[in-house]
């Protein structure tokens, strides 16, 4: 009886370890990158004339850049570290935004 319980316990532990190993061995599945408003993320390297706004982290906070990519036009009192991990990654790279309406919608999503 005691041996049966011990064997069952060892079996459960072995299956658990194998499952954990398989999960870590599988390649990570990356979801398609979307912004909070549902629009596709635009790379920072795209032509700024088509995407005049850049939403990104600045000194740990949410900021809007226009022509000058060094100093932001607006800095919001929203700490990027409090946002979901995907949003943090996107904001560290920067999100190009085409229109002012899109920009305000995205900011509202991050602030709320």
UniProtKB/TrEMBL annotation:
Cited InterPro entries: BofC_C
Domain Bypass of forespore C C-terminal positions: 74-109
Protein name, entry field: Bypass of forespore C C-terminal domain-containing protein
Organism: Anaerotruncus colihominis
Higher taxonomy: Bacteria, Bacillati, Bacillota, Clostridia, Eubacteriales
């Amino acid at each position: 009886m005691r041996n049966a319980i011990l064997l069952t316990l060892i079996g459960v532990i072995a299956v658990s370890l194998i499952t954990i190993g398989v999960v870590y061995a599988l390649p990570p599945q990356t979801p398609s990158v979307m912004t909070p408003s549902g629009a596709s993320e635009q790379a920072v390297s795209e032509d700024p004339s088509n995407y005049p706004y850049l939403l990104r982290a600045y000194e740990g906070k949410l900021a809007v850049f226009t022509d000058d990519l060094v100093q932001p036009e607006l800095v919001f009192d929203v700490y990027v570290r409090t946002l979901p991990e995907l949003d943090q990654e996107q904001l560290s790279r920067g999100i190009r935004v085409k229109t002012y309406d899109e920009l305000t919608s995205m900011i509202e999503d991050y602030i709320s």
